[in-house]
Design brief:
The structure holds 3 protein chains of 3 kinds. Chain A is mainly alpha-helical. Chain A contains 16 helices and 6 strands. In chain A, the strands form 2 sheets. A 3-stranded antiparallel β-sheet of chain A has the order 1-2-3. A 3-stranded antiparallel β-sheet of chain A has the order 4-5-6. In chain A, helix 5 runs antiparallel to helix 12. Chain B is an alpha+beta fold. Chain B has a 3-stranded antiparallel β-sheet. In chain B, strands 1-4 form a two-stranded antiparallel ribbon. The chains are: A mainly alpha, B alpha+beta, C mainly alpha. At the B-C interface, helix 2 of B face helix 2 and helix 11 of C.
Chain lengths: ~375, ~160, ~350
């Protein structure tokens, strides 16, 4: 104010007229980590949005090359750190395909259980943060209350709550502890009533509807063009779910529906995710009923070696979309190259498209609805 | 929905009252907070916490150090003639773990070939915070053997 | 009037006592024993109630049940560094918190907490202005300048947006709030808040029964006016970080905070006075409920205000936040027409009777 115009760049001078450049994040409560968005806003209306990533880059893909296959499982935990089990599953699935291991049925079922528990827990975290971004404080705590029970189940199974490291190429490190299935069943029975509670607070609430209906409409064609996957894609009406399309683990043997949205807006994506939680619960119940006995580890050598000049891609339906691993083997125990297809990173690309013309308040709803985890975006 | 119902819906605010009802019901429910320093959360049997080493069981194979994805286990050993048997035996010179960098993946325990394991994480110790950045979380052999004993964790627990 | 007061009045002279000493003492008592402790403990109550709603227990470390928490908070805010951003507009930056908190506190002067004293007694209010309701509306409007100035002078884009949002919110909600007040004023035929309560006694009914529409509009507009959820857009922490008070710290931040909670109490007190019969007991004219009279009027008044404050906190624990344009939409397209219709109907009914 005291030194007008002197230290303003030409861009800023331009902005001083009508538009303003706003730096949203990386230190912002609702960017879900360290996402930085460079916004051009006219008042509150967003003209342009430019995501800047890389604040959490740890070179995970390079790390993969330095370790034998089994040592990389803990590194996959740290990509999408709220859905470690599905990351593990995608990675060990890729390694099994590469090496040619057949997973015993009990291990497949337990993996399915863990993956679906992880899906619920990831969706709960999404709902919690999405709701608190839009201003509803209380669902956050209710979701965490239930998520905590899932984390307890994980802890009883593998000893960790978040970074699970709960799968190995060829099977599982442990069998289920005594009483785990009963505790899991107890959770499965209670959980739908809790979902009703979240829905009671949000689904019909007029404020919630006004904040989400018609916000960030993503049509099916655009979604496919951008390579969107997961609930984001299904919210736009495309019934594409790898669990149905290319069943892996025990998904071919359980019944579940793939919820699909109509309008492709934030509200539809919300409904899809809520319904996915209920369906995941259904899968859990079936897996617990059908859980076979038997070994939990395939017959495998202690040191896994990929065949020479082999490559493989294996993708699964993670909570956020298709999480896939592309591994090149060169005959050594280490992968020659490992590339990750992270759903958060690819879903994030559509954010500028979604935000165009919306208000600043919608931006946080849209960041919430893309359900990104920066650990996975930056890797 | 017919227009009358839609209008009534707009006026009656039933959706908002339903939400208020849910929060009120929850207000009277039991709380889930664990009052930490007074009540302590009891970890599960398999909880991966602080390390413990049993020097006698250890056969100095260094598989744990090799299996560690981030190489934070440092093992040196030398040969000594045992006064009892008169044979040469491997003796640990150093067994250090740089716990600051540890990610508690448990691969060292999994790789340990002895039965029972000579290094394990199921000590139910999770209060690892310290004021000192450089020394407290770099634990050596003596410290590694001071943590609580392994809790009951038998094959019966495994279904 | 007790004899010691009588003698004090003799000592300083009746005029000076009635117009200077007695109000000053009342203001001091009300401020330092009433409003300010109430505000600090309201913060605690809010945190506790929100905690209970959210399946947790809220603050419970400082003193039993966290009862000393407000004192700790105040101490912390008092000794905290008071920062000012580079290139902030200093006078506005300093003035803004005062502009928020002062009008909110001044309003308490006209809010009656008990009836007019019979004969020469001490009244349960500081002053009886015959345009009390107008004064309330006028003073409540000033507070928003503080928010705008604070947001603008901080030299922070997020704060600026918060300030502008509060300006838009003020325009949209002062109008329906003022219009909602007209209904009870028409029924009472007076602008003095004490007369309004007395006419509710005369009617035998609290005004929220005949004026249910106005009551709802007033409550909603009141929530919006005090920037509380679901209308807490100016400070929306998930969007604007903290909106207009992003850059404030220490005691200046505390003043903003104080202003917000004082505003909550003001809105509750005014709503109680206008719609819920102020200090009157329920059904003030029903004889067999006369045993309720042993509860002093000021307690009835406080009880109603507390009920309101609870509803405020309950709202915060339940609802998502409106968007800036939706809030104006609600204000202009629903509340103002409804409030006008309410005035029209009230007028017609009053003419017909």
């Amino acid at each position: 104010m005291t030194e007008p115009l002197r230290d303003l760049s030409p861009d800023a001078l331009f902005a001083a007229g009508e538009e303003m450049e706003l730096n949203f994040g990386p230190q912002h409560p609702s960017t879900h980590g360290v996402l930085r968005l460079k916004l051009r806003v006219d008042g509150e209306r967003i003209i342009d949005c430019y995501p800047i990533i890389g604040y959490l880059h740890r070179g995970t893909e390079k790390l993969f090359e330095l370790h034998p296959f089994f040592q990389n499982v803990p590194h996959t935990d740290r990509m999408d750190y709220v859905a470690a089990a599905t990351n593990n599953l995608a990675y060990v699935g890729a390694v099994e395909k590469l090496v040619g291991l057949v997973v015993p049925p009990r291990a497949r079922y337990i993996r399915t259980l863990l993956a679906e528990l992880q899906r619920i827990s990831s969706h709960l975290l999404w709902l919690a943060t999405h709701a608190i971004d839009i201003g509803a404080m209380t669902p956050f705590f209710y979701c965490f209350r239930e998520r905590e029970q899932i984390l307890d189940l994980f802890e009883q199974y593998c000893g960790a709550r978040l970074t699970l490291n709960c799968m190995r190429p060829g099977g599982l490190p442990f069998d289920l502890p005594v009483g785990w299935t009963d505790r899991c069943r107890a959770f499965v029975e209670v959980f739908p009533s809790k979902v009703d509670e979240y829905e009671g607070l949000l689904t019909n609430n007029r404020i919630w509807k006004r904040r989400t209906v018609g916000i960030g409409v993503l049509d099916a064609a655009t979604a496919i063009d951008y390579g969107i996957s997961g609930p984001m894609l299904r919210g736009s009406g495309v019934a594409w779910d790898l669990r149905k399309a290319m069943p892996y683990e025990a998904y071919g043997e359980v019944e579940f529906d793939v919820p699909v949205g109509k309008n492709g807006d934030t509200y539809d994506r919300y409904l899809v995710r809520i319904e996915e939680m209920r369906q995941a619960n259904r899968i859990l119940a079936q897996c617990l009923d059908q859980l076979p006995a038997g070994p939990i580890m395939a017959k495998r050598p202690r040191v896994l070696k990929a065949p020479k000049e082999s490559e493989v891609y294996h993708g699964i339906e993670g909570p956020k979309g298709e999480i896939g691993f592309y591994i090149v083997g060169d005959g050594t125990p280490n992968p020659y190259r490992c590339h990750v297809r992270p759903p958060s990173f690819i879903n994030l690309q559509v954010l500028p498209e979604l935000t165009k013309g919306h208000l600043l308040a919608d931006l946080v709803a849209l960041i919430g609805t893309t359900d990104i985890v920066l650990g996975e975006v930056d890797r | 929905m017919n227009p009358v119902n839609r209008f009534l819906d707009k006026i009656m605010l039933l959706d908002l009252f339903a939400g208020l009802g849910i929060t009120f019901k929850n207000m009277l429910r039991k709380k889930v907070t664990v009052q930490y320093p007074e009540e302590r959360w009891e970890p599960a049997h398999r909880f991966r916490g602080m390390f413990r080493l049993d020097e006698d069981r250890c056969i100095k194979c260094t598989i744990c150090a090799k299996d560690c994805p981030i190489d934070i286990i440092y093992i040196d050993w030398h040969n000594e003639v045992s006064p009892e048997t008169g044979k040469k035996e491997k003796v640990l010179t150093r067994f250090d773990i740089d716990v600051q960098r540890c990610m508690f993946c448990g691969l060292c325990e999994e790789g340990c070939p002895t039965d029972p394991k000579s290094i394990w994480l199921t000590t139910k110790t999770y209060e690892l915070a310290s004021y000192d950045r450089w020394s407290n979380l770099y634990v050596d052999m003596e410290e590694l053997q001071q943590w609580r004993v392994r809790p009951a964790y038998t094959d019966e627990e495994i279904a | 009037m007790p004899s010691w007061l009588e003698s004090a009045r003799e000592a300083v002279g009746p005029t000076l006592f009635d117009y200077a000493v007695s109000p000053a003492v009342k203001i001091l008592v009300l401020m330092f024993l009433g409003i300010l402790p109430l505000i600090t403990y309201l913060v605690l109550a809010e945190r506790k109630i929100l905690g209970f709603i959210q399946a947790r227990v809220g603050p419970n470390r400082v003193g039993p049940w966290g009862l000393l928490q407000p004192i700790a908070d105040v101490l912390k805010l008092l000794v905290k560094e008071d920062t000012m951003p580079h290139q902030a507009v200093k006078w506005a930056f300093v003035l803004a918190p005062c502009l928020v908190v002062a009008p909110a506190l001044i309003i308490f002067a006209v809010i009656p907490m008990g009836p007019r004293p019979a004969g020469e007694g001490l009244a349960w209010y500081i002053t009886d202005v015959n345009t009390g309701a107008l004064l309330v509306v006028a003073l409540a409007t000033i507070g928003v300048y503080g928010l705008i100035l604070g947001g603008w002078s901080s030299n922070n884009k997020f704060s600026l947006m918060g300030g502008l949002r509060s300006a838009a919110q003020m325009i949209s909600y002062e109008v329906p709030q003022g219009l909602a007040l007209v209904g009870p004023l028409m029924l009472a035929g007076s602008l003095s808040l004490i007369d309004i309560v007395e006419s509710q006694r005369a009617l035998g009914l609290w005004f929220f029964v005949p004026q249910i529409v106005a009551f709802f509009i007033y409550v909603v507009a009141g929530v919006a006016e005090s920037n509380r959820n679901p209308f807490d857009l100016p400070e929306a922490e998930s969007e604007l970080v903290a909106g207009f008070h992003t850059e404030y710290s220490g005691m200046r931040f505390a003043l903003f905070f104080l202003g917000e909670y004082a505003n909550m109490i003001v809105v509750s007190a005014v709503a109680t006075t206008l719609f819920l019969g102020g200090w009157l007991r329920p059904f003030p004219n029903v004889e067999w409920l006369a045993f309720l009279d042993w509860v002093p009027p000021v307690l009835w008044f406080s009880l109603k205000v507390f009920a309101f404050l609870f509803v405020y906190i309950w709202f915060r624990g339940t609802f998502p936040r409106y968007r800036f344009d939706q809030l104006m939409d609600l204000g202009w397209k629903w509340m103002i027409p409804l409030a006008l219709a309410n005035i029209l109907v009230t007028g017609l009914v009053k003419l017909a009777l």
